[in-house]
Design goal:
mainly alpha; 76 residues; elongated; 3 helices; single chain
Length: 76
């Protein structure tokens, strides 16, 4: 059951990262707020691109780590 739990935890963690980025748009703070307030509203494209890149890299690292752990604990 451990590989299934690890896979579900990976998906949940990635969903939480995306929800926290979206909550920044409506005033929740975090990277989404930074991208919107400084990047979009102040026309600082570099700030917006960097924050989006950080979010993409964060999600990729979480996905890789989760997949690695699932493969490690799968008994095949």
């Amino acid at each position: 059951a451990l590989p299934g739990l690890l896979a579900a935890t990976t998906v949940t963690t990635i969903a939480l990262v995306s929800y926290s980025a979206m909550s920044g748009v409506i005033g929740g703070g975090g990277l989404g707020d930074l991208a919107l307030r400084f990047g979009y509203q102040r026309f600082q494209t570099e700030v917006m691109i960097v924050t989006v890149a950080i979010l993409v890299i964060l999600v990729q690292v979480l996905q890789y780590l989760g997949d690695f752990l699932v493969r490690k604990f799968t008994r095949k």
